[in-house]
Amino acid sequence: MTTQPMVKTIRELVKLRLAEDNSQRLLMPPIQRSLVWTNEQIINYWDSLLRGYPAGMMMYHHVMDDILEGRNIEGRTSKAGKRDLQIFDGQQRLAAIMLGFAKGELAKNRKLWVDLGSTPKTASGLKFQLRITSTGQPFGYNPDAPNQKVELSKRQEKWKKWFPTNPADVFRTANGSDIIDAECAIPFSELCNKLEEEDNSISMWLQEKGISDDTINKFVVALQGALDRAVILQEVDRKLVSDQEEYIRFFTRIGQGGTRLSDDELTYSMIKCHHPEIHDRMINIAQSKTGRLASEVDLALASLRVARTMKRWHDAKEWEVTPRPRPSSIADLRNRPEVQNEFFHLVGIGLQSSNIDTKLEIALASLREALTNDKGIEDNKDLPPILLARLPRELVDTLILFTVTRGVDKPWGTSDRDIMRAFVLYWMLFIRDEGKAARYIFEQVAFHQWSFTTEAIRKLIQTYEREGIGYFLPRPAMLPSLRHEVEKADHHLRSPADRFIVSNRDNEREFSEVLRVLSTKTELIKRALMWLQRDYLMKNFPHYDPTSERDEDLPIDLDHIIPQKAFGFHWGECTAYLAKDAISDNFRWNRRLIGDSLGNCRWLSASENRSKGAGPNVATNDAIDKIPNDLMSDYDKWNNLIPEQRKNQPWTLSDVATFQRLIDLRTLAIYEKILTESGIELLLSNHVPAPMP
Question: What span, in angstroms and rounded, lies between the C-alpha atoms of 38 and 44?
């Protein structure tokens, strides 16, 4: 039976959302998607309301008796009742509306402002200059493009005043005068509240701030109209609400018209549907210093995965226990009390105070201690924070499992730390199937009493190599023959199939594959160089930490040592860059394979990279300001290939051969250094595994 829609104004909708326990309230949905609207979407929605555009329709249903009635909701101590309503569709719009009143989930890390002293540029499409600040950007975003940061120099100038204040503290205390390029920025919520005052003092209040009468009149009329804008609330049929499977299906299909939920987000939403109290708990964990290794979604699913593994039930099948949780598996959680209790224990459901560290937080702190001490590189093996921010989610699951199985309170000895860091780097560079890699470890822990030891990790990697889960790693003893082969390079650039082929064994198995993949996949190149140049990164950018709250630009560029100008030119201009006998189809089609690969890349300060352009960009052999660990043995040969250094003389056949030789030799040097200095070499079996069948 379909009921008649309700109609509420924006201000009535806000009051319904903020109502106390004894009143009818509008609650967030039991299946909650993440709040994914960008700054631009939020600003455009409020701009639409201020222009008089319709607010749109939202869907709701009454509280589901069998799930939420009489239980804690949204992390509060209050209870849901039969009169309460649940938003089904419209969560993003409702969150944006609440932000305008400085309320709701978004208000924890964003603020909405209106700069009544500035006139928006026509290109922005705004009626009034709306601005957003955040914990990561407490001085605002680009006024004309609110998803983009303000230019770096202006932000750095602002930060000088506050440094080293915590970004979250700056966000809470900064005022309108701190917003970059703002003339008279006022919190939007203050204007909404002023408008509610019966004496209509908002006009006088704005006049005291120096706003012109014309601007005041236009804005007050627009804001009054926006708050009086009608929102249509359509009730969802009770039959859909009571059938959980149908509810999820309808919710997913509704989401197809907006921001679609991933399987992980839907799974997490189902967990929150059954256990609403986990919502605030996971946000607190994810926003803590130790929790920034992963999102709240990934941390929640990792915890449930670990709980199923640690407390697997009788007759449990491997396929039921070891994979990442999926939506279909959440309904069974209530039938697995031991798993549920372990999960609650990990994430802290049932703790009397939110100030008590959960088992998961302790595990994350222990894990971070194992990977890096956050005080710089002491023993030359710590992973820099810039690399920790790139941990794949399957690896995060695995590392939390390792930490929990060995005991979250157990201190890390030097040996265990070395093993852990070496294994993490191995995974980030050399695993080819992360899903299978994680499932195998979870299976070993769940069914074979596996424990974290050097020998266990060595056997694990051996299995990965044998089963093709990880790439086979050529051992250091194999590298001299590879170098010899590279030294013989002629003027023809080697194709992908021909690079590093000397390490193959009887053509049974592509032992050279890992070198080709590592040297050409952009993400792997970035990770390898972040580890290789960790001293350079920590010395020059000690305060840059992408796992922190501060949302700062990457201060480094992935730089080509031999600039792209030398090899990446438009082929129609090849006669300007190549001698006549060096022009060939071979060079045309393989030049980027070599030039864009690992051996020709390094991280370089963004400011230094931009200032040098395509000019000389490597040190001389006797320079004292070389980049640590650049692994370049003959700077003069590198410099000789740079157009500006050779007075734009075209490359000869000999130069083409040198181009490949230098880059491939440096690739091998980087690979060897990763194996030997990281400790990965010590985890490799001397026994060469048989090839896959």
Answer: 10
* Contacts with 297 (C-beta within 8 Å, 6 or more apart), sequence order: 34, 264, 265, 268
73-82, 87-96, 385-394, 604-613: range with lowest mean pLDDT = 73-82
List pLDDT tens digits, range 22-37.
778 888 776 666 777 8
The DSSP-derived string for 376-390 is: --SSS-PPPHHHHTT
CA-based nearest residue to 531, from 679, 402, 369: 679
User: Residues 6 or more apart from 34 whose CB is under 8 A from it?
Assistant: 265, 297
Question: What digits encode the pLDDT tens for the residues 507-517?
Answer: 444 678 899 99
Within 8 A by CB and 6+ apart from 305, the residues are 322, 323, 324, 325, 397, 401, 442
Model pLDDT, residue 14 = 93
Task: In whole angstroms, give the CA distance from residue 7 to residue 55.
Answer: 11
Closest listed residue to residue 408, CA positions, set 368, 362, 441: 362
The contacts found for 565-568 with CB under 8 angstroms, 24 or more apart, are: 565/614, 565/643, 566/595, 566/641, 566/642, 566/643, 566/651, 567/591, 567/592, 567/594, 567/595, 567/659, 568/592, 568/595
- Please list, in sequence order, all residues whose beta carbon lies within 8 angstroms of the beta carbon of residue 180, skipping any fewer than 6 positions away: 139, 140, 150, 154, 155, 158
Question: In this structure, are residues 394 and 438 in contact, taking their beta carbons and an 8 Å threshold?
Answer: yes
Residue with tokens 């031991």: 338
The DSSP secondary-structure symbol of 417 reads H
| Closest residue by Cα to residue 294 from 377, 394, 376, 375 | 394
Taking residues 6-15, what's their average pLDDT? 93
Would you list the DSSP string of 71-120? Answer: SB-TT-S-BB-TT-EEEEE-HHHHHHHHHHTT-SGGGGTEEEEEETTSPP
Nearest to 110 by CA among 119, 102, 118: 102
Rounded CA-CA distance 42/181 in Å is 20
Cα separation of 365 and 638, whole Å? 44
Secondary structure letter of residue 149 according to DSSP: E
For all residues of the chain together, what is the average pLDDT?
A: 85
How many CA atoms within 13 Å lie on the side-chain side of 447?
15
pLDDT at 278: 85
